[in-house]
Structure formats: structure tokens, C-alpha cells
Specification:
The model has no long low-confidence stretch (mean pLDDT 84). 40% of the residues lie in helices and 23% in strands. By secondary structure, the protein is α+β, with helices and mostly antiparallel strands. The radius of gyration is 35 Å and the shape is rod-shaped. The strands form three sheets. Strands 5, 6, 7, 8, 9, 10 and 11 form a seven-stranded antiparallel beta sheet that branches. A four-stranded antiparallel beta sheet has the order 1-2-3-4. Helix 3 runs parallel beside helix 6, helix 4 packs antiparallel against helix 6 and helix 6 packs antiparallel against helix 7.
């Protein structure tokens, strides 16, 4: 409270209160608006020893560790008298009790917030290990994030392939609804997400418009709406960034430091779950590929009819790979000719 400190000058001390006579008070508050504090208007004439229109009596509220919690302002006493050391004693006792009550309330709120944070993290962590199917896993984690933070206007989780330097949107939400154009879409690493991937550090931009000239990278616009608050958290596994989790809002300063800590803690566990799900998916993909290869091998060994063989190969491949057309050719070495054996279009 830098402004408050100027009024708590030792030269104005009266016991544990501070009395500022009107002449000194006018000078101190020349550049400060105190209309919310000084609301009483005195119009009658006062004697020199009586309370004057611009007199101020302030009582600071300190925590047990000496932190300034607030200030009580007292104005125009009923007896019209300026304060004395003895007359402020009841006010000092009241201020001490008020400070204790405020500090206890603050500690209670912190304890409740911490309990809510730990509960949310436990539920989100359980969701992150509840399945190896990536889409389902991310939906469950998102549900827990939305339950704790409220539904964020925009949210995405992307994975990063270091070899291709491409990012893939594994989940993209707008107001809680999936955005199909982004799901599973791949893009070149760029923008704020690209910066997070390169540096491995979280990024919280309180106001994109106000901080436009100070951004570490040029944002890549993904939507038409004007994003104001942007949070991005790296998903790290074995000292490698494998993705980014991001929440965004149309309002500036939409997320608290506590929100960012929650997302950062969750990101550590989500990264492990994401990598496991990717490994499981790759394993399933590899097994499916081997099954197709084995099936094709059986077809090749089961017939000498080239058209029948190619037709069955096409059936196996089309069930595994999306394809618009299929061409199979037969080479006659004695004639040095290539003949179309099967064409599917």
C-alpha cells in the first residue's frame, strides 16, 4: 500500500493511530482521491481545538507478522474533539481485534483454496491415468479443469513431433465444445506455442493487446475472436517438450497465479499420460500393420491367380488404409511389358 504509507508517517503518530491535522492532510492528499474515505462534510464553524473538516484519524491494521492489512479511517467524532492518546485507546483495541479477524479469514480462505486445489489435482490426475485412449483421456482431464477453473472460452492440447517439427491439435475447445477443423490437424511449429516448445517454459500473458510489443513471439491467430488472456504450459517428458496445454480468455487478467500453478502441476502428470497414450497408440498401430502384413502374406501364398491375389490384397489394404483408388500391375519379363492386372477407382 504505497499511498497509505505516506499517511502513516511517524510525525503523525498518536499511540498506535495517526492523526493528521487538516493543513498537513491537504498537502498529503493533493494528488490522491480520498472521496471514498472522507465522506462526511462539515459546514459549521469549529474552534481551533475541535475537529476540523479536513482532519484525519487513521488506524492501521497489522497482521501478526507485521503486514499491513488495511486502515480504519475515523471522522468527525460526536464530541467534536480532536483525539488524545487516551481517547484513541478503545479504537486501538478494536483495530487489533479487527486485524486478527481479517487475518484469520484470510488464512481460512487460503486453506479452503489449497484444499480445493489439491482435490482438483487429485481428480484430474485420476482422470489422466484412467484410460490409454488419448481422446477419452483428454476429454476427462478437460472436464476436471473446467470444473475447477470454470469453462475456459478457449482451450487446446497439442502434441509435438520433434522429427517433423509439426504440432498436432489433440483437443481444441471453444466454450466447452469441440472445434472439428482443429482436431487432429497438423501445423508447423510457430507462434507462442512454438516459443514454449523451444524454451520449455510456461507463458502467461495477462493482456495480449497491452503487451503486444513485449511478446516473445508473434501469436498465430487461430480464431476470429480477440484473445486477451493467454496461458501456455509445456508438457515435458524426460527433459523433452512433447506438447503444450493452453487456456485463453476474451477478458484481460482472466487467470490468477493460482490457476497457472494448478495447470503447471497438472501438466507434469498430463505429459506422462500423454506419452503413455501415444506409445499405446503406436503399439496398437504397429500391431494392426503387422496383422495386415500377415494377412497379405497369406493371400500371396494361397493362390497363383494374379487378379484374385491383387483383389484380396486390395480388400485387406482398404480395410486398413483410406484410399481413393488402387492399381495392380503384372510384369511380363519375356515381353518386357507391364500389364494392368487390377484397377479399382
Amino acid at each position: 500500500m504505497p499511498v497509505a504509507q505516506r499517511f502513516l508517517d511517524p510525525r503523525f503518530r498518536l499511540g498506535r493511530t495517526f492523526f493528521i491535522a487538516q493543513d498537513a492532510g491537504r498537502e498529503l492528499r493533493a494528488d490522491v482521491d480520498l472521496s471514498d474515505i472522507m465522506t462526511i462534510s462539515i459546514t459549521d464553524e469549529r474552534l481551533a481545538h475541535e475537529w476540523q473538516a479536513d482532519d484525519m484519524l487513521l488506524v492501521p491494521l497489522y497482521s501478526m507478522r507485521g503486514k499491513l492489512l488495511g486502515i480504519i479511517s475515523v471522522d468527525n467524532p460526536y464530541d467534536r474533539q480532536r483525539p488524545t492518546r487516551r481517547s484513541v485507546e478503545p479504537l486501538e483495541i478494536y483495530a487489533q481485534q479487527a486485524a486478527i479477524a481479517i487475518e484469520n479469514l484470510s488464512l481460512l480462505r487460503e486453506a479452503r483454496d489449497q484444499a480445493a486445489l489439491m482435490t482438483a489435482l487429485a481428480r484430474a490426475s485420476a482422470a489422466a491415468v484412467s484410460t490409454l485412449e488419448l481422446g477419452d483421456l483428454l476429454e476427462r482431464v478437460y472436464a476436471e479443469i473446467a470444473d475447477y477453473l470454470g469453462t475456459p472460452p478457449f482451450f487446446f492440447v497439442l502434441s509435438y513431433d520433434r522429427q517433423s517439427e509439426l504440432v498436432r491439435y489433440e483437443l481444441f475447445k471453444e466454450q466447452g465444445e469441440n472445434k472439428p477443423p482443429f482436431l487432429s490437424a497438423t501445423h508447423a511449429k510457430a507462434g507462442l506455442s512454438g516459443w514454449i516448445i523451444d524454451h520449455g517454459e510456461p507463458l502467461y500473458i495477462h493482456d495480449l493487446l497491452a503487451e503486444d510489443t513485449q511478446l516473445p513471439a508473434t501469436p498465430v491467430p487461430l480464431i476470429e475472436a480477440v484473445i486477451r488472456s493467454w496461458v501456455g504450459i509445456p508438457l515435458r517428458s524426460q527433459d523433452r517438450v512433447i506438447g503444450v496445454l493452453s487456456v485463453q480468455s476474451l477478458q484481460p487478467h482472466a487467470f490468477s497465479d493460482r490457476d497457472v500453478r494448478f495447470l503447471s502441476t497438472l501438466a507434469n502428470q498430463l505429459a506422462v499420460a500423454l506419452e503413455k497414450a501415444q506409445l499405446f497408440s503406436e503399439r496398437e498401430q504397429r500391431l494392426a500393420e503387422l496383422n495386415v502384413i500377415n494377412a497379405i502374406g497369406q493371400v500371396v501364398n494361397s493362390t497363383l491367380n494374379i487378379e484374385r491375389m491383387l483383389s484380396q490384397v486390395y480388400e485387406r489394404l482398404s480395410a486398413f488404409l483410406p484410399m481413393d483408388s488402387f492399381l495392380g500391375f503384372e510384369y511380363h519379363s519375356d515381353l518386357n511389358q507391364i500389364v494392368t492386372a487390377l484397377m479399382v477407382d
